[in-house]
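Bug #77: duplicate submission created two jobs. Keeping one. Sequence:
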Amino acid sequence: MAMPGFLLLSIALAAALVYVPFLAVGYGRLKVGYDPSAPRAMLAKLPPYAQRATWAHENAFESMILFAPAALMAYVTEQQSTTALAAAAVYLVARALYPVFYIANIPALRSLMFGLANLGTITLYVLSCRAAFL
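Kept job's structure:
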């Protein structure tokens, strides 16, 4: 796959990754009895793993709103380097593992994945800005 296509695909994959932790939330809701009239009030009733999955789900939105513009900037500035490819790939892998470590309650690895994903995003911003302004 050509690099521009991968950058666009990475945005779609990042969007899909937002909902991966929600599978554990859904399972937790089933275990405690889902109340559609007060879905947010259920958070306190969920098992700890499902609470952490909720937080991972929310964090995925926060992360994606920074990554998507970075990938779009890289696309617009026609980034073709292996560095740009690696940055997008590192983001996706780290964000795929982030909820696993969050739900499993392994804070050190969760934080490492958070940092690696941010490094991938920042790298795309830097590459794009360098191409646009230098």
